[in-house]
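Team,

Forwarding the record for the chain on the shared tracking sheet. I've put the sequence and predicted structure together so nobody has to dig through attachments.
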Amino acid sequence: MKAGTTVISLVKTIAVVVVVAVSTPAYAQWIMAARHVAGRISQMTQDDQNGQPAYHFATVILDAPASNVFATVVRVAASNNAVTIVSRDDANFRIKFAEGTKSASLNVVPLSDDTSQLLIAATASSSASDPGTSRVVSSIMRICAEMNKTCTVSGQ
């Protein structure tokens, strides 16, 4: 009976080693790809049924731990008197803001110990002179500047 248990344990150990050996290079390649696009801001607009912009989204990958990025976001938000923090979830790196009738949500996603993704979604402005896309991109640019990171808007 002991030999059978030892064989089963050995098979389980080998299976774990194989899974780790196969997944580690794929994970490393994924992190290398994420670092390659670090600092590139991507943006998108979601239109309503009438073809008018309803929401604006922007995202960027930063070479920084998620906790540092989130702390910077909170510090920048707290320093802006025009912005009200509606809710804040420190454990999940999420925060919601309001500025007048406009609202925005921000989420920091840890990709590794020292790489994270910052995502912002905001309601679109009804005014053509205040495009929401520039607001979300400006917010990311300010956070990048506060963290001494170089960020640029990627070509669409």
